[in-house]
Specification:
4% of the residues lie in helices and 33% in strands. The longest helix is centred in the N-terminal third of the chain and has 8 residues. It contains three helices and 26 strands. The chain is mainly beta. A hairpin with a 2-residue loop joins strand 1 and strand 2. Strands 17-18-21-20-19-22-24-23 form an eight-stranded antiparallel β-sheet, with no helix packed on it. Strands 4-13-2-1-16 form a five-stranded mixed β-sheet, with no helix packed on it. A four-stranded antiparallel β-sheet has the order 5-6-9-8, with helices on one face. The chain has three domains: 209 residues, no CATH class; 116 residues, Immunoglobulins (Immunoglobulin-like, Sandwich); 46 residues, no CATH class.
């Protein structure tokens, strides 16, 4: 949208109190645009430009002060590629998708940002890119022709006619179209809100949904069910107080609770409300005593926006961080890690990096067909007379994760 009425094209929650809006074209005003929320109890404060480094890291490009286009990537989002040893270049229609050289002209080089993070960049004059009003597709590829995945959170991600994801360089949206703002009197992201450009002729309202750096939100706090013990600093008694801590990462929830019970066959559950933590992302409940071996469900409630949230406060949920479960849908089982047998040389398991993993899918029924287990056909679930004589390897598929997934 190169001309016409200015609109908000995307609006994102980035975290508690923090949001971003992307406009239909670069903003040329000396002051930030005026914004208004449908929620009167959620005033908007501190509207400011998002900055080229921020929005460029997600869009894959931004415009420099001299009018040049800077293509950019964060190497940390592509750990399967060593940017220093396996140089990465930008590729698009402007260089026949990396075929036209020299490659050094399109190669990314590191630059340290003001926040200390490294952004790999390549500077190109606008006239070399032949970007019309509809923009031009591009992506990034390493020297050994590994195509870097396009970020799922990229607001300019699109699919070509062959179904390939690409970035789109939009010449009218080069960084000055992005603004950040904050809200007061609430976290914001736990509600369903719409935003618009304010003024005599306001723009159409647009829902605010999670996006951009929202998907980088995380916590260092241990999740799931944990047993903690405290001893008094000074006492003639040598007892300790034990607590069972339940912790859940649920940034958009309005409330959460944990339901615990000792008997699986005839449960008499006790429900404890969970309290939102200082990070405003995690929920926690502290229950007195060591509940090792007890069962528990989580209950999470929130406001549904019809697209990105599907809360059902009545549904009992299996904790995704439970160390054990009584079944595929729960309940989870509290495990005291201190009671687990350990050897002196045991170390905490550290999974390999995702880009070194192979995911194997196998059908147990078919894999055990020829296993020397002494099982009858009805137990195996296989009819030998009707079963074709193909190799079991036909039922095993090995997947390598795609870059950026």
């Amino acid at each position: 949208m190169a001309s016409g009425k200015m609109e908000i094209t995307q609006a994102y929650w980035l975290g508690p109190h923090l949001d971003a809006v992307l406009l239909s074209r670069n903003w040329l005003g000396a002051e930030p645009p005026a914004l208004s929320f449908a929620a009167e109890d959620l005033p908007i404060v501190r509207i400011r430009p998002a900055g080229a480094d921020f929005i460029g890291a997600f869009c894959g490009y931004y415009e420099r002060h001299d009018g040049c286009i800077v293509f950019c990537q964060e190497a940390s989002r592509h750990p399967q590629i060593d940017f220093a040893k396996n140089p990465v270049q930008v590729a698009g229609k402007f260089n026949r998708w990396g075929v036209d050289g020299p490659a050094e002209r399109w190669r990314l080089a590191p630059r340290v940002r003001a926040d200390g993070r490294v952004l790999w960049e390549c500077v190109a004059a606008r006239d070399r890119l032949h970007a019309g009003l509809d923009g031009v597709p591009f992506k990034f590829v390493s020297a050994d022709w590994q195509w870097l995945g396009v970020l799922f959170s990229a607001p300019n991600r699109f699919y070509d006619a062959a179904g390939n994801p690409n970035y789109r360089l939009e010449p009218q949206r080069t960084g000055r179209h992005a603004f950040l703002f904050e809200v007061e009197n609430g976290r914001g992201l736990d509600g369903h809100h719409q935003i618009q450009l304010a003024g005599p002729d306001p723009s159409r309202p647009l829902p605010v949904t999670p996006g951009l750096s929202y998907f980088d939100l995380a916590t260092n706090a241990p999740l799931g069910a944990w047993i903690e013990a405290t001893r008094p600093g000074f006492s003639i008694f040598r007892f300790k107080t034990e607590w069972t801590i339940f912790r859940l990462f649920a940034p958009r929830a309005r409330s959460a609770a944990v339901e615990v019970f000792a008997n699986l066959e005839s449960p008499s559950p006790e429900v404890y409300p969970m309290i939102l933590g200082e990070d405003e992302l995690t929920w926690e409940a502290r229950v007195s005593g060591n509940l090792h071996g007890w069962f528990y469900y989580l209950q999470v409630s929130g406001e549904n926006d019809g697209t990105s949230t599907h809360f059902d406060g009545e549904r009992r949920l299996l904790d995704p961080w439970a160390l054990a479960t009584a079944g595929p849908v729960g309940p989870g089982i509290v495990i005291d890690r201190g009671r687990l047998p350990r050897r002196a040389d045991d170390r905490e398991y550290q999974p390999p990096p995702w880009h070194d993993l192979l995911v194997v899918e196998g059908h147990v029924r078919d894999l055990i067909r020829r296993a020397p287990l002494g099982l009858t056909a009805d137990v195996k679930g296989v009819d030998d007379n009707a079963f074709s004589q193909r190799m079991e390897v036909d039922y095993v598929r090995v997947f390598t994760p795609s870059p950026g997934s």
